[in-house]
Amino acid sequence: MSDQAPVFSSLPVPPAAHKKPLSDTRHGITRTDDYAWFRADNWQQMFKDTSILDPEIRAHLEAENAYMKAAMAETEALQKQLFAEMKGRIKEDDSSVPMKDGPFAYGTAFVTGGEQPRYFRQPRDGGERVVLLDGDKEAAGKDYFRLSGIDHCTDHSLGIWGYDDKGSEYFTLRIRDLATGEDLEDVIANTGGDGAWAPDGRSFFYTVLDENHRPSKIFHHVIGTPQADDRLVYEEEDPGFFMGVGASMLDDVIYIDIHDHETSEYLLIPTSDLHATPKLVAARETGLEYSMTEGGDVFYILTNADGAKDFKIMETPFDRPERENWRELVPHTPGRLILNHMAFARHLVWLERENGLPQIKIRDRRTGEEHAIAFAEEAFSLGLSGAAEYDTDVIRFSYSSMTTPSQLFDYDMTTRERTLLKTQEVPSGHNPDDYVTRRVFAPSHDGASVPVTLLYRRDVALDGSAPCLLYGYGAYGMSIPASFNTNCLSLVDRGFVYAIAHIRGGKDKGFAWYEDGKMEKKTNTFKDFIAAADYLNQERFTSYANIVAEGGSAGGMLMGAVANMAPEKFGGIIAAVPFVDVLNTMLDDTLPLTPPEWPEWGNPIDDEAAYHHIASYSPYDNVAEKPYPALLALSGLTDPRVTYWEPTKWVAKLRDKTTGDQPILLKTNMGADHGGASGRFQRLEEIAFEYAFAIKVARKM
């Protein structure tokens, strides 16, 4: 903001990245990238061993970190205060309510001071807890450690657990004897993080990630044999598709789920014959999506087939699951988006969203009668856990709102009685009456009405003076829930208005809301976010100079785009692992996510129109000589989703082009992946850092 005094004082000279022009010609158009050299040629190997990073690149990243540290030095006391506040709102020795499964009930717990979860089990109806996997013990001595969880086999004797100790999202699987707590000799490397047990508990299926970090193969491992002897079950040759493997609740089939952002395909392996050729359900057809759950003698299919844009539920015989046998059960209703579904012995359950709010629906499989679980607040969030057992009438769900701490319920689908199991504790105290949550609607450029969820203290003055953190994402159809967030209270209690813009690109208002924010309509996402800022300014919830925008990953692209399009409407911007070098990334089909992402953004390699459209908004390509607001970019050196060089290049170009005097900072976590630090308190330290930047920019310290 060029009309404001600098937010940060006494800054050292920022790092100036060397320019090493590299030209690339596509569709007859030549582009020159001064900072392409930040992309290490050996990036695949470096993700597994960061010591081999090019010394020149490392030196620049370390110089950026030193500059960032100097810029943020005067906020260090504030960061510690914020961390203490956020930590004080967490019950340190918290544990989940165990979920019943056979003779046991399984859950997770944390110990006071612990960073990682402990996985435990106890007798089904209560009794002594036995720790199956102690995350803190496994993480000891490691700079980075992330668990993928533990999954027990049918007879509860063994468990598969996985870990990533590099931050590269290549997980190693181990097999644990749940009676002794000892791991078997089996070590399965380079996996997606989990496995699907065969019913006999002596073998399992898992995905392997290739050198470009794509789940390209599914193997069958027999316990006690080396990984090199594992049987290849399926190989996906199209690099544009993701793939996963899972087991049905009744242990009748192994699912192979193949999909990109708009197309699905399922293959089934009967557990009665683990060596059988996987059976195709419905061949991939561009734009056709479906998912499956077993219901005894039938499968229930959630699909957008036949123009059901907001999805419908169909059923098909278990032994004849092919598409020609699908029969409609829950019809498509425009504007009511069905998000997921579960089947139990006597009930079919699904989570849907209508008018931006979630709802749990239940159908009696015997009578066809349907009912919904009712809630009263204006804006809220639901989580549907379901159950671990098929033959049950009781499911589990969670409820929260921006002011209401999370509540966990068991719900009897027959009697319709709900039982409160647990309410989220806030040890430092929380009075919901001190806060206001609202759902307002901002008119966008084309007349679309953009939902915006607000949280602020009841005593805050709504005269334009309040600072505001405005959060957005807007991609992949992901909706941002209006859920309870103890961390943001550290901003709200300092007079901030905390706002979530439910912009196009998500599915907050149905599937059409998603379609209107992707491919050639992508700029609607950015304009919706700017419209939210306009509305908050106009209605005096805040003012442009007091708005700090925040988004991560694809939301980081959003941050880069709005910085280019309307820098004067934001006092500051926080871009976490920002996907900002969109054109170059979509032109590089060796990167982990590029081919699977083409249905979301377009394929600029083959499609000249897609090339021009992406080039028109790609944040890195549209940095211009103008005053940019104060900006903080965060990245992880081993992040396989948004590679470290994207924010590095972007910051270098921004700093070279800006005509303003506000700081542009880059923080690279040299030992973390896309999700940031792996420990629960380490993650709080990162959030405290981001919030300190926001408070500093808002001049509230």
From TrEMBL:
Pfam families: Peptidase_S9, Peptidase_S9_N. This is S9 family peptidase. The keyword Coiled coil does not apply. GO terms for biological process: proteolysis. The keyword ATP-binding does not apply. It comes from Ferranicluibacter rubi. Residues 483-698 form the Peptidase S9 prolyl oligopeptidase catalytic domain. Belongs to the peptidase S9A family. Keywords: Hydrolase, Protease, Serine protease. One of its GO terms (molecular function) is serine-type endopeptidase activity. Residues 14-423 form the Peptidase S9A N-terminal domain. It comes from the Bacteria. InterPro entries: AB_hydrolase_fold (IPR029058), Pept_S9_AS (IPR002471), Pept_S9A_N (IPR023302), Peptidase_S9_cat (IPR001375), Peptidase_S9A (IPR002470), Serine_Peptidase_S9A (IPR051543). PROSITE patterns: PRO_ENDOPEP_SER. Residues 1-25 are annotated as: Disordered.
